[in-house]
Amino acid sequence: MLRQDRLLLGLAALLPIALMACQNSATPTEALASPPPAPIKLEAEKGTLTGVTASKDGSGFSGTGYVTGFTTDQSSVAWKFGAKGGIYKVVVGFRTTSGDKGFDLKVNGASYSGHFPKSDTFAEYQAGKVELKDGENEIQVLKGWGWYDLDFVKLDYAPVPAAIKPVPATLVSPNASTEAKAVMEILAKGYGKRMLTGQYDEKDNAFIQQSTGKLPAIFGGDLMDYSPSRVEHGANPEGTAESHIAQAKKGQLVTLSWHWNAPTGLIDAMIKDDQGKEVDAKWYKGFYTNASTFDIGKTLANPESREFKLILRDIDAIAVQLKKYQAAKVPVLWRPLHEAEGKWFWWGAKGPEPCKQLYRLMFDRLTKFHKLDNLIWVWNSIDPAWYPGDDVVDIVAVDSYPSDHNDPLSNVWDQMIAQFDGKKMLALAEIGGVPDPDRMFKFGTRFAYFVSWSGSIGSGREDPARLKAAYTSPVVANSDNWRSK
Ligand code: CA
To answer: Is 243 found in the same domain as 138?
Structure first.
């Protein structure tokens, strides 16, 4: 028997009581509203196992065991079950004895990605939300990175809230410019109601305009080649800032990242990693941790060092560029030190403390010493350990490269909203390809904006029909209407 049939039978039994209640105080609608569907728990050991095995060894699992051996691409556990249609919150019971592991969840053909933290004992992972339909549903847990144990999947009916809490429209920057304040007010006013579209790279922006008739609301640029250690090696950034300002004059809001080449200590050679694999660590890869010997922890601990002075030299060089946007009255969604928690960039390589210290040093240097008043400060990490503080962050953002572009990203959204609801605006600073804004809103994922990374849209990488649907969705705003919608 399907679960909703059991529920309906249960409801019929309650009906006389409900009608009595109705005659007393409750309105008919309240009294007759269906109770929320009961949670659905799917034990891994009772699913259909492919290329994996059930085990009862050890303790701490739910039900009568768990499933282990996710080692081949075919490894999966699948269940078919009845449900009432709607959005459900997913909790996955798991164990990961050899470090954190990514996994894939497929629900009625739609893919969702998740990431188990390391846990030697059985634990629960909040995997975001999925959509179930009335009647029979199918869920599969697919290998992903593999090498984890799966205990169960639990689904709780979770209707999407009609609104999210408003966030302050004020900026952390002292003496923020009129233009920057106006942008933040516009973003705050529409927050949760619509999402600004965005795209890195001029060619990709032009491609979107050609194929959808719409220019993204946000233009994404990068100040990488202004890094002094790149200029020393012959990089020529001439005209980059000017080209971004030209995009702003077309009605776009500018966001900037900075692939900051390490100030010194560049390896500038091909090297072998721990596994003996060849790695390009030439000077132009100098923002990567493995392409320099630069140590941000040691540098910040020694303010008198040559390295510390080079940090300031680099920030000052970037300030020269940022002042061009300031002079042109162009506010910037400024996203320095991005993806720090991944540790693949040198600014994150020594952990959260030096990184937060560097961010605050940059904030002070740019806003107080250089008096830049046009920056809206975007912090790009969702791990609370890395958060530099409410007083230096306007927007908290995440980068995501989901295996399925239709993934509504509800798991990262839920993690972020748990920390920042009503406190800081949330944004999707980088995504591979274009997301599905309608689907995101259906799941309650309501980022202020999304910005697709350069090279992820054109040359057949994104389906033109999906691109057009995203840019003409009623829940997005483009360059022509983000100030008014
Ligand atoms: Ca189990």
So the answer is: no
